[in-house]
Amino acid sequence: MRGRTLGPAFRDLWAAQGVSQFGANVTVVALPLVAAVTLHADGLRLGLLTAAGTLPHLLVSPFAGVWVDRHSRRALLVGADLARAALLLAVPVAAVCQVLSLPLLVVLALLIGAQGAVSDVGYSALLPTLVAREDLVRANARFELSASGATVLGSSAGGAAVQLLTGPWALLGNAVAYLVSAAFTWRLPREDRPRAPRAAGSAGTDVWREMRAGAAYVVGSPPLRAVTGATTVFNLFLFVCEPALLLFLTRTLALPGSWIGAVFAASGAGAGAGALVASGVARRFGARATLWGSLGAAGAAGLAVPAAVQVPGAGAAAVIAGSHFVTSALVIVFNVTQRAVRATLTPPELYGRVNASIRTLVLGVASSGGLLGGWLTHRTSAQAVLLVGAVGMTCACAFLLPLRRGLPEGGIVRVSAKAGR
């Protein structure tokens, strides 16, 4: 039986999001490669460029939430795509004019990252206005599927483009991708929704008050507080594992590069599989059980990584690849479901600020988790840090205890008799 479609507006938004995510992943790879290949930047300068691309997501997201709730989300998304296209075109233009430099790339990375933060918050806020409440899980699953595909394809395309098109010219195709995304977004219907009320006072005071309103809503809602706490703690320990993982693979296990590549490829495959089954799992078990089970099992699957030291050679790589596949799939199932929960429990006029508040918190702990993981790896061992990280990820599901009450179960995952996929 054919499933009920999500409508032409969703298809346009989905296409725009997929192309935009593809462009963002190309940028993540291509911009540092331009710096390394064309400008011969060393490791320290490449680290600075990488930080310039990620820092705006942490700093700009809270303000982006206010803008997204105040203004047309459709217009902001189109503007973000057009701005990124123009900024990327500046790279080959600067190369032709012989003024391309690392400081210019750092400034461009900061500006592109800021527009990316607006885009990410905008997509999260616009999606719930285009689909019915009972279709949120299915819609978020499709978003996750395209995002995982964009990560794999965009990363590969970024490296290949720099090699084939000679440095700065590789970013021309990336700029075109953002223009295509803007065209799809422009096709969306004009919004008819309640605008966020502005607090009395100066414009600057208004912004801070509206930012606090989003955070206060998360803190004041037990289900949102529980989901946010679990997500934050899980991500903290996930990023604690990041610095230790490469050392564990290369030094402790001494795996060859091809096997290490297979481990990371398994993560991408798991993410795609999770996106395909997420709506079916949530429909079968309900939101509460899906959130509990997926997060707890994702952490538990990580325990296999430090245990792989007991298995020789290719067996260790297979164990870790399997662990990464399962963890990635379950994380996507959790993310799809918790985003539907957030959208269901949040008033439309607060979509932007609530998503921005949660996003800022999660990105903040990601940065601190990486630093903590590096310090712990230096003081102990990679295997010990991976064990601590897996235990911490597993325990994150304890934050979901309040979901025994206060979660409007039925409307989040309800599917009509005509809905099949």
How would a crystallographer describe the biggest sheet?
none
CATH architecture of the largest domain: Up-down Bundle
Distance between the termini: 9 Å
Here the CATH topology of the largest domain equals Growth Hormone, Chain: A
What overall geometry do the principal axes of the alpha carbons give? Answer: globular
What would the average pLDDT be, to the nearest integer? 84
Query: What's the alpha carbon Rg, rounded to whole Å?
Result: 21 Å
Query: Regions with pLDDT < 50 over 5+ consecutive residues?
Result: 413-421
Provide the domain count: 2
Task: Tell me how many strands there are.
Answer: 0
Count of DSSP H/I helices: 15
Helix content: over 70%
Instruction: Return the CATH class of the largest domain.
Output: Mainly Alpha
Per CATH, the superfamily of the largest domain is: MFS general substrate transporter like domains
The assigned structural class equals: mainly alpha
Order of H and E elements: HHHHHHHHHHHHHHH
| Percent of residues in beta strands | under 5%
